[in-house]
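Fold this complex.
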Amino acid sequence: MESYNSFQVAQHQVREAARLLHLDQATIELLSWPQREFRCTLQVRMDDGRIDNYHAYRIQYNYARGPAKGGIRFHPDETVDTIRALASWMTWKTAVLDLPLGGAKGGVCCDPKSMSLRELENLSRAYIRAIAPMIGVDRDVPAPDVYTNPQTMAWMMDEYETIVQRHHPGVLTDKPQQIGGTEGRRDATARGGVITVREACMLLGADPTKGFAIQGFGNAGQRAALLHREMLGGGKLVAVSDSRGAIFRAEGMDPEELVMHKLKTGSVLGFPGVKVIPHEALLELDVEVLYPAALENAITADNAPNIKARIICELANGPTTPEADIILNRKGIHVIPDILASAGGVTVSYFEMVQDNYSWFWEEELVHARLDSKLTRAYRAVQEAVREKKVHPRLGAMVVGVARVAEAAKLRGWV
Ligand code: NAD
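Structure:
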């Protein structure tokens, strides 16, 4: 069984890209470590009157290209290394998309499911009080991540504005639209992924109207199901899964009905006319496109040899282990790596920062068009690196991202 420290994986990926780019040792050292790390313990008043302590982090991995950017997780299993890894991946993701941003991530070790709404609000406000000196539109701009959402951002923005005593909506993104959020954020990650699938199909001569499967029918997965059909002119959704189970129907399922079913019952299980299949079987189906949209390490050296999809679009962060990557590449499966495939969200977050700055908000169509243009360019830049360096797409994407950050660092005289 493979077992990984995700930060070691992230460092390995940087060094591999750096080797292909012939970067000097000083640059490799700079890019292998976070530039700034902050740890603290938050004191939060609970509903029964007692005070609980929570360990919290904010890590700004690299800000050579602009203010650091990345989400905040509320999760019991967060460690300094998981946050370092996620902050590293944000750095390469914003660079691959050519956004004028760096990369960051934050987290609080807590169990949000066991906390009341008021306790979560107290925690959110305590966190922002702790990190206020290091964030801002020109420093670091957080966003939601696992178990945080637009409501969390609204509390955090309010706390920040109370501290600085002025209106400052761009300090956080993915806010509700009524207080500075943007059109087009809710489906941005899935939309970005589907745009890259469209480009991949054109490149490979693949047919997006054939079968596709989605692992993880949450925010990203549900929207990918709807948008795949809408944007690519059809496609049979033959299988989906969530944490409770996986379902299959060879003739395809109606994504809209499935979304309604999941909304009503809380699971994809029980959808009429389908067969329940084991979780692992979904990943091994003979489909044109597979969207992993659940958790890390779904595709491993154990199941990669059995994967038959022609294209894998990684909407989830880190769904494929390094060993599995090599196997998929040998099998000729076209992997669209997470730092490209799931970059639609941060791209539209950047659009939100721009709109907040000008206090002038764009129509939804404009957000979609600009997202399409950014993702299409990024996909093509990665393919060019793949051809030029003769590497697999994940390494191609890392080469593009690492080269851009290294160049910015050199111009600044950091290396
Ligand atoms: P979510 O919590 O809304 O959805 C996750 C889904 O995966 C849930 O339906 C859950 O039941 C399911 N799931 C969990 N374990 C599973 C398993 N073992 N097998 C099958 N399904 C399982 O989360 P989300 O926002 O859709 O994010 C999904 C992934 O996409 C995460 O890796 C996240 O980091 C990544 N991502 C999301 C965004 C975004 O904007 N939402 C942006 C970038 C990356």
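The domain at 35-179 is CATH 3.40.50.10860 (Rossmann fold).
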